[in-house]
Specification:
By secondary structure, the chain is mainly alpha-helical. It folds into three domains: about 70 residues, no CATH class; about 80 residues, no CATH class; about 70 residues, no CATH class. About 35% of the residues lie in helices and about 5% in strands. Helix 8 packs across helix 9. The radius of gyration is 26 Å and the shape is elongated.
Length: about 240
Amino acid sequence: MQDKDSLWARVVRSKYKVGEIDDLRWMVAKSNWSSTWRSVGMGIREVVLPGHSWVVGDGKSIRFWKDKWLSRKALIDEVIGDPPFGLESVLVTDLWREGAGWDLNNISPWVSNATQLELAAVVVDNFTGACDRLSWGETSDGRFTVSSAYALITRDDAPKVNNESFYNRLWRVIAPERVKTFLWMVSNQVIMTNAERYRRHLGDSAVCPVCKGGIETILHVLRDCPAMSGIWLRIVPA
């Protein structure tokens, strides 16, 4: 996305008609895509698109409202009231007045005071010739790392139950260490069942190979599979 000059980049950009980050048309898989490039395309759609950010230079490539450049969200996602008409085409440079700063008359009615303070710390560079450039928004220095990408795609901001007391009780179970470790893996849902293999594209089917009557989840393996009923009947009194 950043390298447009080196030979390999020119070849790939030409063969696969690589466009800009905000143009989704070229990211749709085509019949001439190799399996490797299909994986690259998926990575761009599922990781780069939500994780990228912009560093302001001359402001001529960044859409003021639609792109992520001031924070981890686009300003359109935090707009107050009815958004201004034609915001899709407004560039950062369009709202910058050389010698005066930001055109707050066309900005402040739709953004919070906190956003205005963030804007005050950003200056559009019209002197050195610096261009806007893509950056990785999930690290403080803008450099891409696999760990930050993994954290991005596995991030779950939904409210979660506090299981601290549950795990404390689990590790106090009087049982061999391997049993306690197995219980911990079950509670974290990391047992490699057929359902998990299928989700990771490591298997062709998620069906239980024993009973052939249901999806092989952890709960199915331990409780719901008919093959387990005899074990439970022998262990737990009716």
